[in-house]
Amino acid sequence: MGVYSIKDLERISGVKAHTIRIWERRYNIVEPARTKTNIRKYSDRDLKRLLNVSILNNNGYKISHIAYLSDEDLGKRLAYLCLDTKKVDIQVESLMVAMLELDEVKFNSVLNQSIIKRGFEKTVEEVLFPFLDRVGILWQAGSVNPAQEHFMSNLIRQKLIVAIDNQMENQKVDKRITFFLDEGELHEIGLLFYSFLARKEGYKVIYLGSNVPFEDIKGIDQVRKADAFFTCFVSPPENSLDKILKAYSEEFPNTPIFINGMQVKEYEGDLPDNVMHISSAEVFVEVLRKM
Fold first, then answer.
1. Dihedral, 198, 201, 203, 208 alpha carbons, nearest 10
2. Does the pLDDT at position 237 exceed 90?
3. Residue 70 has pLDDT above 80, yes or no
4. What is 47-163's CATH number, 2.70.70.10, 3.40.50.300, 1.20.1250.20, 1.10.1240.10?
5. What would the DSSP string read from start to end of 253-281?
6. 3-state secondary structure of 246
7. What is the pLDDT of residues 3-20, one digit of tens each?
8. Which helix (H) or strand (E) element contains residue 150?
9. Rg of the Cα trace of the chain?
10. Which residue spans within the chain are E strands per DSSP?
11. Taking each helix axis from N to C terminus, what angle separates 6-13 and 17-27, rounded to the nearest 10 degrees?
12. Domain chopping of the chain, boundaries
């Protein structure tokens, strides 16, 4: 069972702490326990209820009305809203609730509804990536526990692997891209998705996965020469991104190195000549078609 501070609730729900206190006093939307020093402590139920109320409130429901709905009725109204797959924020919030509840059926239902309407690639880019960015912020803040993150990651991973399996025979381009995560980097979702895009465009793929030492990359490239590399930086690396990119660029000066991830978005330095920031699926597909 999770225990959350009011700051945790603010980070996860997007509702300001001041507003949470008002809703608590006026409508009893959440019912915190208190520490001996009178500090509020919130439960999983408080967090899930606040998320549901916040979603409905942001989509036109008056707080004075939804405040008195039961948890079951809140869930029903949220499920109805999710049918409108044009509203990305609702689906991201619904995935958050499903993750917190460890509710596989709800999680898959939200994703499947979006895939039917948007298609697989648009769902990953427009729904899953914003969701994962938010989870990453909460993870760094300590507001999401490991079980919830692993639960969510494995469900997404399963869908990506199925999509990749469907492209395994599609090798119409005589070029190879090696996909890997640097040593210490464990978040594979983005890497899997971009490897799927490469396979879909007919490229040969060597997928090495997470936490791959630099020396192993050098050894593998001697066995199977890559026409390009792709890697993601989600977590803050142990060494500076400058040093890591310089090392790869100097080791493989004539090979394009594509990079992606939250740390790359925030990077303000100059990239080596053969290193390219891939900012979206569309950019990557365009690059692949020109290689």
1. 20
2. no
3. yes
4. 1.10.1240.10
5. TTS-EEEESHHHHT--SPPPTTEEE--SH
6. helix
7. 788 888 888 888 999 999
8. helix 146-165
9. 22
10. 33-34, 40-41, 176-182, 204-212, 228-232, 257-260, 275-277
11. 110
12. 47-163, 169-290
Are the CB atoms for 274 and 254 separated by under 8 Å? yes
**End-to-end Cα distance, the chain:** 51
Say how far apart CA 107 and CA 109 lie, in whole Å: 5
Cα separation, 130 vs 36, whole angstroms? 38
Domain 169-290 classified CATH 3.40.50.280?
A: yes
- Rounded to 5°, angle at Cα 133 from 129 and 135: 115
Greatest alpha-carbon span in the chain: 67
Nearest Cα to 135, choosing from 146, 123, 125, 149?
Answer: 149
The contacts of residue 87 (CB under 8 Å, 6+ apart) are: 59, 81
Residue 229 vs residues 113, 169, 182, 221: alpha-carbon distances, Å: 33, 21, 12, 10
Q: Tell me if 263 sits within 8 A of 241, measured CB to CB.
A: yes
- pTM of the predicted structure, to 2 decimals: 0.79
